[in-house]
Amino acid sequence: MMKSKALHWQEPVTAPCPVCNGSGEWAGMFSTGPCANCDGTGLVGEDGEPLELRELLPMMRRQRDRQWDRLRRLWQTPGVQEAVEAHRQRRIEEGREWERQQRKRLRGG
């Protein structure tokens, strides 16, 4: 497997796929699937051709790493952990209430 060299690799110039408008999916009348023009990535090179795997993988890894870093920073923001826990507790209580309503409905009440 060929590895990219961090010091020499440059992210390729990309554009949204003209076929799927950058979504990576085509939508038919009864189904959807990955776009054949961009191989499901939503991106094409500046020439309109799908990106090569050797260009695409390092770019996707960098995007993944940036998103993980962003998520870690967000998680460390004051109040975020408490807000997430409060939301989780609300969802649990909503689930319990829904179950109570379903039991009551099934009993005919």
Detail the topology: elements first, then pairings:
Elements: E1 14-16, E2 25-27, E3 32-34, E4 43-45, H1 53-75, H2 80-107
Antiparallel strand pairs: 1-4, 2-3
Summarize this entry quickly.
47% of the residues lie in helices and 11% in strands. The protein has 109 residues and is mainly alpha-helical.
Described by its quaternary structure, the protein is: single chain
Main β-sheet, spatial strand arrangement = 1-4
Percent helix range? 40-55%
String of helices and strands: EEEEHH
**Strand residue content:** 5-15%
Mean pLDDT: 87
Can you give a write-up of this model?
The longest helix is centred in the last third of the chain and has 28 residues, at 80-107. This protein is 47% helix and 11% strand. It is flat. The mean pLDDT is 87. A two-stranded antiparallel ribbon has the order 1-4. The protein is mainly alpha-helical. The chain is built from two helices and four strands.
List keywords for this structure.
47% helix; mainly alpha; two-stranded antiparallel sheet; 109 residues; flat; 2 domains
